[in-house]
Specification:
Blueprint (H helix, E strand, L loop, with lengths): L17 E2 L3 E9 L3 E8 L5 E7 L1 H4 L2 H14 L12 E5 L8 E7 L4 E2 H5 L6 H20 L12 E3 L5 E3 L4 H6 L5 H7 L12 H4 L7 H16 L9 H10 L5 H4 L5 H10 L11 H13 L29 H5 L11 E2 L14 E5 L6 E5 L3 E2 L12 H27 L1
Antiparallel strand pairs: 1-2, 2-3, 3-4, 4-6, 5-6, 7-8, 8-9, 10-13, 11-12
Helix pairs in contact: 4-8, 4-12, 8-11, 11-12
Amino acid sequence: MDGPPSTTSEERLRRGAVVLGKYEVEGVLGEGGTGVVYSAHDTTSGDAVALKVMHPHLASEVQIRGRFMREGAILRRLEGPHVCRILEVGEVANPAGGEPLLCLALPRIRGRSLDRLLAEGKLTEARAVAIAKQVLEALECAHGQGVIHRDLKPHNVLVDDDERATVVDFGLSKIVNGGSGTGTTNLTTLNMVFGTPEYMSPEQAQGDELDGRCDLYACGVMLYEMLTGALPFAGDTPLAVLTAHLTEPAPSPAAAAPGLSPAVTAIVLRALSKDPGNRYSSAGAMRASLERAEIFPDEPDDVPEGPAPPPPPERPPASDEPVPETQRTGAVPPSAGPFALETSTTEPSLTPRPPSSRWQGDADTGRGRERTSRPRVSQPTSKRTPAPPPRALGWTIAWILVVGASVAVGVALGLRG
């Protein structure tokens, strides 16, 4: 298959040319599907920079040019310890004439791309996990600012001599392809400019709307490749690879890399779930699982994420089912201590219920006595006025009767006199 139209020699920037007002071109670093990358330096500070100039055939597209300026302004605000930030966004004159070229100025990062490291063979589990955590930290930063990479792959991850990983080319896929997934239509129209099939999520292959979980899928593919030295899905054609992503179950990395820890194996398989809802909910959650796997390698992380689901609605107890104390009387106030006070069922604040037999025992001795259930209330003793005992109530009634009789006798004697 022929490659996409590239920049001709007449359209390349000349050595010594100053673009965007202060960046002097030194030479060509490389060329990719979207443009040519030049080495340059800032004439005001002396800092080394990289200039990514998009191919003229892309710059001539009105929609791409408009997205480039809009998205570029957003991407300039994107910063993070493992994100390659954008210094400047603008247009440069085309040496061959015609439409101005679109240019991004980036810090020049010393290091090699991850795909070059993988060309030397698979990585150790510790090294692969360390790189993956840094990639996820970059994704966490970008997703938090509403930016999805959409074309995450080893070529877009740079690793320096200190094993520090930096993710590049955030947002370029959206600039070229727009907001939707790449899909087979865009693959044909742009002649495979964006969306490397080996790292594309199933929803991206179908052209669905995307969110940050498509980047987590790509990170899962990269982690599988770092651990095994091979890709989880392969095919003779790009369409065959996309079909495999959509239809074939994800292979276990432990099958290709014996000795891989169960925890990391489970993380890779979860990241490669076909359904985005079955993947990690965020880059931060996946990174936390990798950190846990480093501490507990033999314990797959199957703890649910986020808040616990709400409890099921309460159902009324069956007639032969004992009623829990918390359902009958509510929670015990802290000041009530370990004991609850019993009251008569005639209290107006309590609702009588059918009697049932309960065994009340001592938790320490195991001794107990059978009693009939009565409602219990738990209140602070300092606020409770105990009901008068039955005997005191009887003496009160008797005293009222005696006084009433005395009054009646006195009235009768007065009438007779």
